[in-house]
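Researcher: Quick one. two chains, 638 residues in total.
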Amino acid sequence: MAKADTTVHTLGTSDLPESYWQSAFMDNWGVLSRHTIGRIGLALLALFALMAIGSFIPPLIDPIYNPMSGVDPGISYASAPSWKHWLGTDFIGRDIFSQLLAGARIAFLVGISAAFISIFLGTAIGIVAGYAGRWTDTVLMRMADIVMVMPTLLVLLIMSALFGQLNIWTIVLLIALFRWPGVSRVIRAQTLTLKHRPFIEAAKIAGASHLRIIVRHLLPNVLPLALLYMTFRVTSAIVIEAALAFLGFGDPGTVSWGMMLQWVWKTGHMFQAPWWLLPPGICISLLTLAFYMLGRALEEVLDPRLRREDPEE
Amino acid sequence: MTLNRYILRRLIEIGISFFIILTGLFLLFHLAPGDPVARMVDPSMTAEDELRLIAQLGLDQPLWHQYLKFVANFFSGNFGISFHYGKPVSQVIADRLPNTVLLFTTAVILSALAGVWLGKIIAWLKGRPIDTAVTIGALVCHTLFLPWIALLIIWLLGYQWGWFPITGMISPEVWIDPGATLLAKSIDVLHHMVLPMLTLFLIHFGSYLLIMRSSMLDTLAEDYIYTARAKGLPERMIRDRHAAPNAALPVVTSVGLSLAFSINGGALTEKVFSWPGIGRELVFAVSNNDYPLALGCFLLIAAVVLLANLVVDVLYAFLDPRIRY
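Model:
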């Protein structure tokens, strides 16, 4: 059985020498880092990651910089940027810069965990549907079709109508539960093309179980594609959470960028306090842009056909 | 004949999908903590009215009976009575639906046309600095956070420059005036529509442009484009008459596929601009615990998305004679 594993593999097995991985990584990294859009995306992501890590610092300096509960005792109105408050304060004197940093942390938290769960679900369902075929495939893909046409934001709204205030993890879970079908369609299509390749047949003849074929032979081959889709899922999860918070249905215990925008809007400061209105929106837009750019660059790394078409984009 | 058969099959599938959504909502409605009766019956009703409504909606019956009643009520257009408006939900929805359709379809069609047009030109200029600039611009448009850009547009065009009204769909003074002509009223609505439409346009335009660009690049590599060149056709003719129509097909598909995403955006836009449409009504209903209205709006939107996907697929078959069902 172990013999079967070393037969014709297209890409990705555990039996290849260490240097193969190294050179493959360097090749792909080369393409990615030469890619202008990919480079911008990575740089932006690094910046936001720094912000997220830095979000722990301001409350340590002085409790008035706590994004949620810290209030500057001298200020009880929305004040413009100053040395003490780099981006000004909100309507009750909370520091906007530290809120912005805390928002970065929430955005990464929501984006990455929701994307991870939905990719996990999507990949599992896609592989099973593609590999099993017949009625399993039909049922799973019909289910995907139904979930796919549901506007996720509105579903979340209905859920919060029925279940009351949703907390951040429920929101993450719900986003993930409604965002897997796109991934599973792609993974299923990929599985279908792999299913009849000689290495799968060989594994079958060698007596590998279905589970083994799925985990050892199919999964490594569809994983790069799943990772690519993860970047796009991160984007949509961040946007949906922000939109939900903007409409006033976010987790009241968190400071997210959408929440900040809701405060500006609801307290009627959007015409008076540009220092408060601009930063959260710029951050949401730039962070989604960064993941999107990274996704497009990864697409090119994974699909050499695109690489040839756009040599120097 | 085959197309009719295909449509019939899809309609049956849509019916099944809708049934599943309906069942799911019914279950959620009864599983959620709290009293399902209290959700459907306005607390401010008189006891007599309350009993009548409970009987009408079948809320005093066993669960399976309630389910049948729920489905039957839905198909006869009876969603219950909105708490806030005190009117049947179907009536509220019927008032709001044309507004949403007006705003949404105009914005989607305009942005698709603009995206196809610019995408075509940009693909032709591939590799030049202008191509990179427009591609990045389109990426930025596509990833803008909708409520935020809506607020910025209001701030700049509505507040700072004061060119357009900030909220709503009509100015009461124009509509109360008995001497106002239909033209004056239409201009008033259009005037209110500019800002929300601009918002939706910006969000959709970028993605249509990107799709058109890459699909156009694929098309330009096809053999029949070489043939056209070999025949000595002018470049403009090749671009506009030979390549573009074929390349525009994926844009049609993407309009259908991204519909769920667009509807989210539509609801946000309506909310920010107080445009009296279904999306705003849904957000409003959820904020005010007006369950019958929220449910009605949601089911309607789900039905529209399902049907719109079918329309897009059929349209695709008309546009592309190679597609056979």
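Chain B has a mean pLDDT of 82.
Researcher: Thanks, that's what I needed.
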